[in-house]
From TrEMBL:
Residue ranges of the TM segments: none
Biased composition annotated in UniProt, kind: Low complexity: 1-44
Record's keyword terms, sorted: Monooxygenase, Oxidoreductase
Protein's UniProt keywords contain Oxidoreductase: yes
Name of the protein in its database record: Antibiotic biosynthesis monooxygenase
Source organism superkingdom: Eukaryota
One function term, GO molecular function aspect: monooxygenase activity
Region described as Disordered: spans on this chain: 1-46
Record bears the keyword Oxidoreductase: yes
InterPro entries: Dimeric_a/b-barrel (IPR011008)
Length: 167
């Protein structure tokens, strides 16, 4: 896997990227803290920018202490990173079917946005709590600022507009 100098070391991994059962399960949030919401200063225009996204899968050791410590550290990290200036969102989730499986979705204005000194605490705390290496994937989100219409059924589009207006 290619390593980028602007990516914090805790996100570098040599793990094999694979789609295992634990990483494809439906997930739920483990924290509803208000700081887990996207940075409001960037929320309106994020669709028009090239957004750099990291998706990290973690799998905790099979003991309650490791699970509790990992959960707390991930909640803390979300609360810290969600307030960083160029962070659009930093979300942590736990699998519904496997409480040891976690996913982090980090959204940044650009690849060089991760400058928080907090990340230096991450690896040394988290790595001993994991049963397997972190699975890190890097993405650039697609530009969705312009309307794209693949579906041609106008009735479906009208029903969709009505549904969205009622929310």
């Amino acid at each position: 896997m290619k390593s980028f100098t602007s990516t914090p070391p805790h996100l570098h991994t040599t793990s094999t990227l694979s789609l295992s059962k634990s990483t494809t399960q439906q997930s739920t949030s483990i924290s509803t803290h208000p700081s887990n919401q996207p940075n409001p200063s960037n929320n309106q225009n994020h669709r028009k920018k090239m957004v750099y996204t990291l998706v990290v899968h973690l799998y905790a050791k099979d003991d309650q202490t490791s699970l509790d410590k990992l959960t707390a550290k991930l909640q803390e990290a979300s609360q810290v990173y969600s307030h960083d200036k160029e962070t659009l969102g930093w979300f942590v989730m736990r699998s519904e079917s496997d409480p040891r499986a976690f996913t982090i979705v980090e959204r940044y204005e650009h690849e060089g946005s991760q400058k928080s000194s907090y990340w230096q605490t991450f690896d040394q705390y988290v790595l001993p709590l994991l049963d397997r290496p972190m699975d890190l994937r890097r993405f650039h989100e697609l530009d969705t600022s312009k309307d794209v219409r693949v579906e041609t059924d106008e009735g479906m589009w009208e029903a969709t507009r009505k549904h969205q207006a009622s929310e």
